[in-house]
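Exercise 4. Each item below gives a protein and its sequence. For each, produce the structure-token representation.

Item: ADP-ribose pyrophosphatase YjhB (NUDIX family) (Anseongella ginsenosidimutans).
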Amino acid sequence: MAQIYRIYVNDKRIIITSGLKKAYHPDCKKITEKKLYSVLAGMINGNDSANFVLLTASPDKIMEDLKKRLTYIEAGGGLVRNEQGQYLFIFRHGKWDLPKGKLEPGETPPEGSLREVEEECSITVKRITEPLTPTWHAYALNGNITLKQTFWYRMEAGDYRQMKPQLAEGITEVKWFSADELDEVRKNTYDLIREVIGDHLVEV
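Answer:
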């Protein structure tokens, strides 16, 4: 099976994959490993507005090298489902998003993901049911290129009777959506979030 990583930069991405053409969209420009850093910096600085693909035999090694070269941080979040089969979303910075946040020192990804969901939405999580595919996001922070890996988990909601947005984190609304209402989310969210819900909104 082909390995594939998607590093999102705003609404564009760099795909690093061992797969063939079907692994990426035909509008992607091919790049080499040697050009990866300069292309990533150009995208962050607004100089490049295309999608890119790097075909390689060793995607894992390239990602490990990037983690060492860039400022690497870890975050965690959840795709939370309640007993009615609805999914939990937050509204932040004018877009629908999933609850998530940076891991604290010493936290494991499951611990941090659960904490972030409970803090941002004022709910309790009954349990984590399974890990989902992590996502990657690159951006500028304090003059450096930051590479963020977000660990995602499917979760079951516990008590959400006191549910409310964490205003201090810029969240203005917390809302449950049924599967047939998710077009509202898809029309106003990030490509990274579309990837998460597109890959994992499967009833279990």
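Check: The longest strand covers residues 144-157.
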